[in-house]
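I have a small job for you when you get a moment. Would you make up a two-line entry for one protein for me to read? No commentary is needed, just the two lines. Write everything out right here, beneath this request.
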Amino acid sequence: MNHKTLLLSMAVFAVAASARAGDSSNGPGPHWTASVQAETNGQYAEAINELRAYDQKGGEPFLTAERSGWLNYLAGSFSTAEQAYARAKLLQPTAINPLLGLLSVAQAQKDGKKIERAAEDILRVEPTNYRAQAALAALHFAGKDYRRSASDYHRLLATYPDDADAMSGEAWSAFYLGLRIEATETFRRLLSISPSYPYAQQGLDLTVGKTTQSTFGLSQ
């Protein structure tokens, strides 16, 4: 290759590289970056607008839907967030983040039926997911369905045996079921790792000296 041919080849390469750079700058990527920056600054409306531009420039549909759910959740537009996460779920049924997003939206709406459905959807994909198990347990406990909450917390502790919140939930569920021995043992275990855990000492005081023979008999 002579000098003129080399210079011509370099010039062609530079033009091609410049064209590729131009394509990149006109593509969806910069809008995604701008959306993330706007979110960081708390400018959720601007972040949503940039995401819309990302989508219009050929952005990936699943990422668009998932991020739309997240941004609308942050902005307090829960109905729109729910729709976006549901769309992401349809596009990638086994993806965890859209399912967690639906759970977050349901919890923000304080809708028990939606919380239960979202948590169960997560557990079908990831049976030991902490957030989903904890959400179901808390929901059943708040609804005074103590047998179900005791089973939920018992299952949660099988995977997270050192979790203080789950210990407390199991202990109080056992207490309300009249399972004094189990409640006493769990309150004592909780206090051994977290002496100042809220109401744990009160729970133990309520059960000490009042135990009767019983078995937990809860499914995991």
Remarks:
- Residues 146-220 form a domain with the Serine Threonine Protein Phosphatase 5, Tetratricopeptide repeat fold (CATH 1.25.40).
- The two ends are 74 Å apart (CA to CA).
